[in-house]
Amino acid sequence: MNSEQNTVQRHTPETLKEIGQTKLAAYIEAQGAAQQEQILAQLAELDLSVLDAGAAEEARGIFSPLQAMTRAEISRQRARYTEAGLAAIRAGKVGAVMLAGGQGSRLGFEKPKGMYNIGETRTLYIFECQIRNLMEVTEQAGAWVPLFIMTSEDNWADTRQFFAEQDYFGYNPEYIRFFRQEQLPAVDLDGQLMLNPSGMVLTAPNGNGGWYASMERNGMLESIRAAGIEWLNVFAVDNVLQRIADPCFVGAVIESGRESGAKVVAKAAPDERVGVLCLEDGRPSIVEYFEMTDEMRTLREPDGTLSYNYGVILNYLFRVDCLDRTLGVSLPLHRACKKLRCMEPDGTVVVPEEPNGYKFETLALDLVRLQESCLAYEVDRSREFAPVKNKTGVDSAESAQRLLRLNGYVL
Ligand code: UTP
User: Would you tell me which of 6, 105, 205, 384 could form a disulfide with 152, CB atoms 3.0–4.6 Å apart?
Assistant: First the structure.
C-alpha cells in the first residue's frame, strides 16, 4: 500500500475519468496546453493508488495489557538510570528527531507550529521551548545531542529561516540537520482530488510515520552511522513540556534490554481519548481509544489500576538497528479528515472553517508494532505533557500556558 512500491502511471484526463477523478479531469481539460502539461507532470510523480487507502478499518490482532514501569519504580532507580543515560549521551550514542512537518490545521496558525508564540508578556516560541528543554540535558551531559528536524515541503523554508534568524535558540547548529518528508495527494469529502491555490494538485505531508524512511531518502542515515548513533528519541514538536533525550528514560530503556521505549501517561479517566500502549498478538502496539471495547476500557488489575491505562504522548526511543529493519516495510496508510486550504476550479481560494477533505498519512505509532519489545515508561503528565493542538479548550495554547506556569515558566 506504500506509495514507493506501486508503479506510478502517466495520467491523462481520460485515465483520471476511468478512476473516477472527474473533477480534476474536467479542470485539466479546461486549461491551456502549458498548464495541462505541468499538472500531468506533477501527477506522474504522485501515486494515486493511495486514494483507496484508509477507508476500511484495519484488521487488528488480539490485544492484551502491557505493564508500565511506573513513576514510583522509576524514582527508586532514578540516579542509576540517569547515569546510564548520560553515559550514552556523552558517548554520542543518542540522537533526537523532532517531528515538525504537521500542518497544525486545528490550531489554525499559518506558519509552522513551532513558530507559534506561547508567551504572553514576552515571546516564547514553541521551537524555543523544545530547544531549551533539550539544552537542559546537553548542559547536564556536557555534550551535544545531534538533532534532526523533519519538516514538510510547505514549512521547510520557513522553519530553516526561523531557526537561522533565532540563532538556533543557542543550540550548536553543527548538531542540527533538517530534512523533508514526502507529500501525498489529498481528496475532498467526495474522494475527488483537489487543487492547491496555485492551480496544481493539492498534496499534504504524508504523516509522521515515515520519518525514518525520509531520513534514509535524505541521506541522514549515513551521518547517523558515521557518528555511531545507536538510539533515536523521536518526539512531536507541539508538546511544550517535552523532555527530549531524557537521560533517565534513555538509561531505563537501555537497562531494560528492550528494543524501544515509549513515554506514557496514566489515563485521567477510563474513557479518555488517547491511544494506549499494550500488546497486540504479543508485540508492543497502540490501541486507539475508538478501537477499545467497553470491557477493555474498564478492565482493572488486582491493585485497582486500569489494565489499559497508559496513553502514549508521541515520545519514543528506538534502537537504530531495529529501525533499519523497518525500512522495507509498508506502514498502513490512515485517512485524516482535515481543513485543507484549496482552490475551486473557478479560481476561488477556499480557507475552510470546517474539515473539507482527507489527507493520507502513516503514523509513528505504527513503528512501535514493528519492534519486538517496548518499555512503557510512565511520566507525570502535569510535568511532561502540554500539547498545543487546538485554539482553545483541551490541548490548546491556553491549557499549555497553564501547564507551563505550573512548571515555573514566566510567560
Ligand atoms: P498531529 O497529528 O497533531 O498533526 O501531529 P498536525 O498536522 O501537527 O496538526 P493538525 O492535526 O493539522 O491540527 C503530531 C506531530 O506529528 C508531526 C506534527 O508536526 C506533530 O509534531 N507531523 C504530523 C509531522 O511531522 N508530519 C505530518 O505529516 C503530520
Answer: 205
Which of the residue ranges 51-65, 187-201, 238-252, 340-354 would you say has the lowest mean pLDDT? 51-65
- For residue 195, list its beta bridge partners: 201, 343
Query: Which atom of ligand 1 sits closest to the CA of residue 99?
Result: 25
Q: Is residue 171 part of a domain?
A: yes
What ligand 1 atom has the least distance to the C-alpha of 101? 25
Q: Are 127 and 71 in contact (CB under 8 A)?
A: no
In tens, the pLDDT along 272-281 reads 999 999 999 9
pLDDT (0 to 100) of residue 51 = 87
Who's near 240: CB < 8 A, 6+ residues apart? 118, 126, 129, 130, 386, 387, 388, 400, 403, 404
Prediction pTM value: 0.95
Closest CA to 72 of 266, 260, 250, 217: 266
The residue type of 401 is Q
**Structural domain for 343, as ranges:** 67-264+312-406
Residue 44: which H helix or E strand, with range?
helix 33-45
Burial 59-85 (b: 16+ CB within 10 A, else e): eeeebebbebbbeeebeeeeeebbebb
Ligand 1, atom 1: nearest CA belongs to which residue?
102
**Cα(302) to centroid(ligand 1), Å:** 37
E strands of 70-152, at which residues? 94-99, 147-151
Among 237, 286, 358, 360, residue to substitute to test ligand 1 (most atoms within 8 Å of Cβ): 237
Which cell is 32 given? 491551456
- What phi, psi does 44 have (nearest 5°)? -65, -25
Pocket-forming residues, ligand 1, beta carbon under 6 Å: 99-107, 113, 150, 181, 205-208, 236-238, 314, 338, 361, 389
> Burial level of 137, CB count in 10 A (0-12/13-18/19+)?
buried
Structural domain tally of the chain?
A: 1
The answer to the question of residue 298 being in a domain is: no
- pLDDT tens-place string over residues 68-124: 999 999 999 999 999 999 999 999 999 999 999 999 999 999 999 999 999 999 999
CA distances from 376 to 148, 198, 337, 380, 387 (A): 24, 45, 29, 13, 20
Q: Is residue 375 part of a domain?
A: yes
CATH number of 253's domain: 3.90.550.10
Question: Are 121 and 356 within 8 A, CB to CB?
Answer: no
What is the distance between the alpha carbons of residues 93 and 115, in angstroms, rounded to a whole number?
29
